[in-house]
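STRUCTURE:
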């Protein structure tokens, strides 16, 4: 049977799928230790490619198969003439048959094993082979002591498979976690290493499939990673005889008193991302300033919700929430916009109003919460959302029957009956007021171009993140949403020199 075609992007896998792949590979090789030997050799090659001149190496091994991979790496290092040794806690003697076999092979080669005593001597590099993908709980006190020492060492840290303490499925760290300089994923890319706390723990990422590509092609993906290269050829060029009506009409609603800039940022992004027409409904006091800033937008002063009817009749997509506020004016406009049945992109205060007054949403609605807004919608704490971002995004999508863009490091896009997407782009400089308003306009413009809701959300989130990376090339601090407008235009057209 032919393999099912993969969607745009790179598949990511969870621990359950990796266990199946490990079993499949062990059966194919006829020996489970052969796969561990491949992992150790791949890790040694990766270490040499990253740190070719390193001579003094400490490998911190745990009790499981991740520790076994570490013993194999250290054996290669020792046999190459490096000053390499294993450090471990007394409680971390090998517990699995494969780890015991790897430990035995290391000892037979003349390798040294020392008890961990809070330090790493004259080491130039620490290899983290404590826990791998199997740990989904907080490390115990002794393991936490080792992790703290690794992080305090000031040495480069090479993590095998997963930085110890990081949940490879969820991307969260329930307790202490190793902060790696570089992480080599084994067999397959892990879903949790591309979102949430993983962003500050993994360092750079590499992958060694260990020749498991056939098994990977049969395994179900837990998520799909989208990166800059996936933007190319997503939208067909405009027809030579195109007119503005072909590219859709976006209505941006928001901008309560003192918040007119937020809705204007959404309008700016919608225009730069290719909407043919963009209207703005805002407080009358904001109209002159907004028209002076962006004459291409059609800006309307709206005091009463009833004034929205004619504007919504002409719109193809409504972007609701930037600067909307949570007072009576915003709540009335919110109710009127939802009742119209138009395709919606909801952000900011539109989500906060929705959290207070849950409503049935029109089909194809797109929600774009940050973790705090997601927590209010779900009745959770922000920490609970961040502890399992995949589950939070899925639950929101199921609860509202819509598409959800859960913002943050490793933005997630979820929808009922869809494999979630992880946005592998963006940077900390984008953590500034107004960036979410820009994202709202991006997604609304792509929806108005005719993309389905999930596709528009994925493309818009990726486009926004890649534009942010382009704009941050001169530095992340001081990055402003308006700095993304020129890169948005570049990337919506396929990127530089497309």
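SEQUENCE:
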């Amino acid at each position: 049977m032919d393999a099912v075609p993969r969607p745009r992007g790179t598949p990511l896998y969870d621990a359950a799928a990796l266990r199946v792949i490990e079993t499949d590979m062990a059966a194919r090789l006829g020996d489970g230790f052969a796969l561990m030997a491949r992992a150790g050799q791949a890790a040694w090659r990766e270490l040499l490619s990253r740190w070719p001149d390193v001579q003094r190496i400490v490998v911190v091994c745990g009790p499981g198969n991740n520790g076994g991979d570490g013993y194999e790496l250290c054996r290669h290092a020792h046999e190459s003439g490096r000053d390499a040794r294993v450090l471990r806690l007394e409680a971390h003697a090998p517990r699995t048959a494969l780890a015991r076999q790897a430990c035995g092979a290391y000892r037979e080669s003349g390798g040294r094993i020392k008890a961990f005593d809070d330090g790493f001597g004259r080491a130039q590099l620490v290899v983290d082979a404590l826990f791998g993908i199997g740990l989904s709980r907080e490390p115990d006190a002794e393991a936490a002591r080792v992790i703290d020492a690794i992080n305090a060492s000031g040495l480069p840290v090479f993590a095998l498979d997963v930085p110890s303490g990081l949940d490879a499925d969820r991307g969260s760290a329930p307790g202490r976690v190793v902060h790696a300089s570089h992480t080599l994923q084994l067999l397959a890319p892990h879903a949790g290493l591309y979102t949430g706390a993983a962003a500050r723990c993994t360092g750079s990422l590499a992958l060694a499939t260990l020749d498991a590509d056939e098994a990977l092609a049969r395994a179900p993906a837990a998520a799909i990673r989208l990166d800059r290269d996936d933007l190319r050829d997503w939208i067909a060029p405009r027809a030579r005889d195109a007119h503005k009506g072909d590219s859709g009409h976006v209505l941006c609603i928001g901008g309560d008193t003192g918040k007119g800039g937020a809705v204007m940022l959404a309008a700016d992004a919608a225009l730069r991302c290719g909407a043919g027409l963009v209207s703005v409904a805002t407080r009358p006091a904001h109209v002159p300033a907004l028209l002076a800033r962006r004459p291409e937008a059609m800006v309307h002063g709206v005091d009463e919700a009833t004034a929205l009817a004619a504007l919504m009749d002409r719109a193809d997509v409504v972007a609701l929430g930037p600067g909307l506020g949570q007072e009576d004016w915003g709540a009335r406009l919110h109710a009127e916009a939802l009742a119209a049945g138009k395709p919606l992109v909801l952000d900011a205060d539109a989500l906060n109003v929705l959290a207070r007054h849950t409503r049935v949403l029109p089909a194809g609605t797109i929600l774009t919460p940050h973790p705090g807004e997601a927590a209010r919608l779900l009745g959770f704490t922000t920490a609970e959302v961040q502890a399992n971002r995949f589950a939070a995004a899925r639950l929101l999508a199921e609860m509202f029957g819509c598409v959800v863009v859960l913002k943050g490091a490793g933005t997630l896009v979820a929808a009922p009956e869809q494999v979630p997407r992880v946005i592998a782009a963006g940077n900390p400089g984008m953590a500034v007021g107004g960036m979410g308003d820009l994202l709202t306009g991006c997604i609304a413009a792509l929806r108005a171009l005719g993309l389905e809701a999930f596709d528009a959300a994925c493309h818009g989130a990726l486009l926004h993140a890649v534009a942010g990376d382009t704009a941050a090339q001169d530095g992340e601090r001081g990055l402003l949403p308006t700095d993304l407008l020129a890169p948005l235009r570049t990337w919506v057209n396929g990127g530089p020199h497309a």
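REMARK: Residues 10-222 form a domain with the Rossmann fold fold (CATH 3.40.50.10260).
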